[in-house]
């Protein structure tokens, strides 16, 4: 007869071992959870390393899954109209000239006449200038980029800034290109959003990078943090000056302004979207900055500021009746013209955007343009404007893919709709239009140069390209 006592003892031992092992695993898990909770709540090492790894992994997953189709990038918006090209042109009231704009459908810019005919076009992908010196080792595909800003230099050549979707930093750099879209120089610092060209050919630009420094008494500014810099480039594209904008603000009398940032902005605290050089002409009547200073716009803080590039300090800053603003321009009379993206609440049917002219001494609104139920005006992000020589204002309504010129009384005397269209993959039967981030009217000798040498194949091509 088998000895069952040995079997029972063995079975009891195995059960006990399993219970002990289970209890040990549960105990280790509980201890690990407790330690993890302590590390996270107390923010002790290796809290930051774990947080950084999690954020990097999340960003990579989002890039691989969300940014797969060009039409799903935020460079495209639902088309509000079937109209394309120039739809309004009052020859007696509009400022004659050529209009330069860049479009969200790729790294290119178009120069059109007042009837929408293509006078010239530039195209150059980022892959044509990228090399091992770039801080972006694995850039996005060319079709996932566009020229956020393209401006004509005094010599008639073009300076452009590359912006990518689904990457951080999203500013990829700048280049100066000739009429044949060949690079004259390239700057592979992480330039983003905007730049300003001085009469002597120097370029004032914005760059961004991750920083890991901390500031006393401002624990909300946790590293890693995407910080902005103001840089000066020589006429041949070499960096000759670089100033940390956040340091310049923290070390100024306006440091407390950073404490009122919205919760979502602490990792990109300033989100600087504009840099305008104050020259002798604009400095003459502007009490808050001198020639050589730059005007900056901090979108999420709602701040317009002046940075002294020599002292590396913010010398003036203000907030006003605007929300998510872009492109504050100091006018010759000392007032400031800006695009108020989301601050028009009085009439939602008219859109939430407006153009404001502000007296900086009082923040009083001295002029404004806003839409109406028939001409909705709305661009929640991006956009800019330009005060023209005849007193009209050229406006870039980015999200609508529209350019419009308005008089002092608010009459639209010229209007252009980006003609490019694509099918909306998420809404069958609907169309998308690429954003127009920035535009400028060229009415000086540079316009005459392009008119006199425009290729015959381009003249007479209406509506700036074919709708797609």
From TrEMBL:
SUPFAM superfamilies: Quinoprotein alcohol dehydrogenase-like (SSF50998). Keywords: Membrane, Transmembrane, Transmembrane helix. The keyword Nucleus does not apply. Residues 454-468 have a biased composition (Polar residues). It holds the Pfam family Arylsulfotran_2. Signal peptide: none annotated. Residues 444-468 are annotated as: Disordered. The chain crosses the membrane at residues 20-42. It comes from the Bacteria. This is Arylsulfotransferase (ASST). It comes from Thalassospira indica.
């Amino acid at each position: 007869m088998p000895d069952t006592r040995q079997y029972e003892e063995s079975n009891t031992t195995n059960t006990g071992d399993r219970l002990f092992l289970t209890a040990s695993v549960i105990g280790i898990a509980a201890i690990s959870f407790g330690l993890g909770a302590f590390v996270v709540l107390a923010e002790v090492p290796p809290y930051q390393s774990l947080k950084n790894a999690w954020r990097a992994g999340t960003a990579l997953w989002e890039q691989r899954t969300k940014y797969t189709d060009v039409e799903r990038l935020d460079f495209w918006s639902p088309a509000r109209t079937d109209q394309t090209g120039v739809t309004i042109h009052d020859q007696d009231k509009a400022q004659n000239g050529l209009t330069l704009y860049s479009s969200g459908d790729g790294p290119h810019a178009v120069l059109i006449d007042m009837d929408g005919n293509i006078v010239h076009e530039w195209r150059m992908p980022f892959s044509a200038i990228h090399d091992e010196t770039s801080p972006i080792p694995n850039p996005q595909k060319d079709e996932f980029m566009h020229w956020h800003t393209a401006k004509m230099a005094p010599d008639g050549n073009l300076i452009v800034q590359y912006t990518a979707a689904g990457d951080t930093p999203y500013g990829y750099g700048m280049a100066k290109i000739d009429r044949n879209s060949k690079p004259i120089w390239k700057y592979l610092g992480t330039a983003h959003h905007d730049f300003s060209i001085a009469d002597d050919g120097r370029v004032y630009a914005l760059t961004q990078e991750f920083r890991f420094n901390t500031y006393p008494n401002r624990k909300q500014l946790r590293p890693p943090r995407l910080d902005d810099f103001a840089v000066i480039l020589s006429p041949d594209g070499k960096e000759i000056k670089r100033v940390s904008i956040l340091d310049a603000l923290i070390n100024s009398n306006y440091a407390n302004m950073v404490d009122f940032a919205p919760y979502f902005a602490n990792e990109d605290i300033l989100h600087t979207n504009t840099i305008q050089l104050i020259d002798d002409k604009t400095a003459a009547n502007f009490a808050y900055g001198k020639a050589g200073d730059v005007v900056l716009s901090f979108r999420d803080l709602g701040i317009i500021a002046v940075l002294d590039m020599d002292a590396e300090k913010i010398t003036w800053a203000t907030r006003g009746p605007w929300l998510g603003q872009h492109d504050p321009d100091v006018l010759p009379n000392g007032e400031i013209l800006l695009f108020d993206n989301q601050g028009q609440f009085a009439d939602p049917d008219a859109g939430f955007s407006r153009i404001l002219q502000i007296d900086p001494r009082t923040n009083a609104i001295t002029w404004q343009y806003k839409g109406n139920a028939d001409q909705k005006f709305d661009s929640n992000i991006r956009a800019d404007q330009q005060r023209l020589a005849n007193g009209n204002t050229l406006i870039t309504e980015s999200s609508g893919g529209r350019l419009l010129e308005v008089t002092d009384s608010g009459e639209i005397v010229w209007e252009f709709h980006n003609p490019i269209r694509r099918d909306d993959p998420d809404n069958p039967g609907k169309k998308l239009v690429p954003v127009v981030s920035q535009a400028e009217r060229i009415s000086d000798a540079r316009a005459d140069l392009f008119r006199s040498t425009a290729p015959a194949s381009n003249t007479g091509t209406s509506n700036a390209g074919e709708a797609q």
